[in-house]
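Need residues for this backbone.
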């Protein structure tokens, strides 16, 4: 029997986080939902368990511990939080795929460049949202990493650009 892949989702309360959790819950993943305030997500946990009885969802408040346990890290946070969160997880994010979701469209490339510096030994990706067609930019990631992340987010349409630095996803 295969071991479930652990995915940490670090979030503040927003709809993108709910969308991501629901998509991951339908797969065979161990989901570590990480938030400073667990209370807003208690209802989400109940709904996930009701809709996906086999889902394994754990709510934690420590980013470092949750990311240490994970194989992939998804940051569903505001762009202004990315730098602080990166500092918290840097030590445990080495060689892991880190996906930044919901970054401001006009600052996306700057934020991805900043995350590459802040997490130099991680495979950093970024997307402007979790539900619309938009480019997803990757740094330090190979084609297999790109496809793995898109598979996690249940993407139905994948378009890889020639240099594999960005892909277009449709969810």
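Answer:
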């Amino acid at each position: 029997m295969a071991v479930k892949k652990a995915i940490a989702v670090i979030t503040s309360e927003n709809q993108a986080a709910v969308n991501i959790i629901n998509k991951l819950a339908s797969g065979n993943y161990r989901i570590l939902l990480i938030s400073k305030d667990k209370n807003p997500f208690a209802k989400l946990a109940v709904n996930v368990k009701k809709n996906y009885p086999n889902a394994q969802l754990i709510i934690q408040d420590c980013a470092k511990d949750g990311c240490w346990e994970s194989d992939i890290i998804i940051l569903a946070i505001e762009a202004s939080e990315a730098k602080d969160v990166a500092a918290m997880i840097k030590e445990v994010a080495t060689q892991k795929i880190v996906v930044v979701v919901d970054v401001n469209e006009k600052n996306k490339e700057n934020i991805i460049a900043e995350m590459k510096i802040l997490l130099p030994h991680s495979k950093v990706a970024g997307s402007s949202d979790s539900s619309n067609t938009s480019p997803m930019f990757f740094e330090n990631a190979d084609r297999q990493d790109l496809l793995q992340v898109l598979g996690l987010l249940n993407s139905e349409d994948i378009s890889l650009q020639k240099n594999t630095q960005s892909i277009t996803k449709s969810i």
